[in-house]
Design a protein that fits this description.
With 413 residues, this protein is α/β, with parallel strands linked by helices. It has 17 helices and 15 strands. It has helices at 11-22, 26-36, 54-65, 82-90, 103-114, 127-135, 151-162, 177-200, 216-227, 239-247, 255-258, 277-280, 301-307, 338-341, 348-367, 379-392, 402-409, and strands at residues 45-50, 69-74, 94-96, 120-123, 145-148, 169-172, 208-212, 231-235, 251-252, 264-267, 287-291, 308-315, 318-323, 328-332, 373-376. The protein binds adenine.
Length: 413
């Protein structure tokens, strides 16, 4: 087994984190039990590019336990936890990643994760899929398919699919009901506040929080920040989402209008240069800038650097850009995903759902011959994962009586 990580000696600390996460991931545990004897991933070679923290490790070890040979790279230099990587290596997963790796190392590690000639890809952000399609095309014939975790990755896959270049089937885990309704909304909502609080020790109540993007993630963050006493200003490009934000009690404004008023700016658009020079020029002294979009392009760091006379490391995870007029703009987690760079990612119980979907998607790809294209998670899997979560919580569902079933099918009163 090959690997390249910071320190194998950190495994005991990683194993403790795994044990903690595992006890709150009942659905993943149930699926492991269900498939253990069958070994549905036997003979599969899985390459994954994921945020290498404890919950992800539980998924990777489960994939391995169900028969696959698993190699993983980190999907963000700051989300990789070195002790978790060590525990993974000890558990038999090949890992290429370290916290704080450079961009060159990041791509070198992703390339190493692909060098095992995968039959299945598990991606978060679509970097492995993009890499295979651009400069590792020799791997295409061996790839049965894969799955994608996040909105930004699905956006890339959709663009590949629409232009006819996606050469194998990819399942969009992100678009399953049991994913986006919970992970994107409540997961991001809580974990972004977690990252903000851990790095700054600041009060949220009474602050004006500017939320850029009112997709599922933006909705979750706005909801949680408001519940802690913040005033919310939402910026949007989409008219329906803008109006929905208004109906939810938020103020809606342009970034130009919000820039001089906000205390905390959070970007969750999936787009690029959302806060930039003309906004930084108007912001107040002491504002916090955090990003929760997958790529670190939403807060324009080159503009921040160009405008500043000096940069200071204020606290762990906080860089302060000092403007010529003395204003201090604080950038969290280098403008990378604040919930993963400055905290541990989404809550465990939420990732239990998302990673149960990832596991089921890998098994679906292994068992079914699928044509190239972008697929939804099959409806029955989506419902079964949700049902298993409710079962694990001891929550029962109403069952329709035969009369009710008949009534629902009929168009006659
Ligand atoms: N933990 C592992 N993967 C994650 C993701 N995509 N978002 C948030 N937390 C995570």
């Amino acid at each position: 087994m090959n690997y390249k990580i910071a320190d194998r000696g950190l495994a005991p600390s990683g194993n403790k984190k795994l044990a903690w996460a595992r006890q709150y991931m009942p659905v993943l545990g149930l699926l492991r039990e269900k498939y253990m004897a069958e070994q549905p991933l036997k003979g599969e070679v899985i390459s994954a590019c994921l945020h290498l923290e404890a919950k992800t490790a539980c998924l990777l070890l489960t994939l391995k336990d169900l028969g696959a040979s698993v190699t993983a790279a980190g999907s963000n230099p700051l989300s990789t936890q070195d002790d978790v990587c060590a525990a993974l290596v000890e558990g038999g997963v090949s890992v290429y990643s370290r916290n704080g790796m450079s961009t060159d190392e990041y791509f070198e590690n992703a390339r190493s994760a692909l060098s095992v000639k995968p039959s299945i890809i598990v991606d978060d952000g679509a970097d492995l899929v993009a890499m295979v399609h651009s400069d590792m095309r020799e791997l295409l014939p061996g790839i049965k398919g894969g799955s994608e975790e996040t909105t930004s990755g699905v956006k890339r896959l959709r663009s590949m699919n629409n232009s006819g270049v996606l050469a194998f089937p990819m399942i969009s885990v992100n678009d399953a009901h049991s994913k986006y309704l919970f992970d994107n909304r409540y997961g991001t909502g809580q974990s972004v506040m977690d990252g903000l609080l851990r790095t700054t020790n600041m009060l949220i109540a009474g602050k004006t929080v500017v939320v850029a993007g009112y997709g599922w993630c933006g909705r979750g963050v706005a909801m949680r920040a408001a519940s802690m006493g913040a005033r919310i200003i939402v910026t949007e490009t989409d008219p329906h989402r803008a109006f929905e934000a208004m109906m939810d009690g938020c103020e809606v404004a342009t970034m130009d209008e919000a820039a001089p008023r906000g205390d905390i700016f959070l970007t969750l658009t999936g787009n690029t240069r959302v806060t930039r020079r003309e906004h930084f020029e108007k912001m107040k002294d002491g504002v916090l800038l955090g990003n929760a979009g997958h790529f670190d392009v939403e807060i324009c760091k080159p503009d921040l650097k160009a405008l500043s006379v000096s940069v200071e490391a204020a606290r762990p995870g906080v860089e302060t850009f000092i403007m010529a007029d003395g204003r201090r703009l604080h950038l969290l987690g280098e403008g990378r995903l604040v919930n993963l760079a400055c905290a541990d990612g989404h809550p465990i119980e939420i990732m239990d759902l998302s990673f149960a979907l990832q596991l089921e998607s890998a098994i679906h790809v292994a068992k079914n011959k699928m044509a190239p294209g972008l697929y939804d998670v099959p409806e029955e899997i989506d419902r079964a994962v949700m049902k298993a979560k409710l079962d694990s919580l001891g929550i029962g569902l109403e069952k329709m009586t035969p009369e009710q079933e008949e009534y629902m099918k009929s168009w006659v009163e």
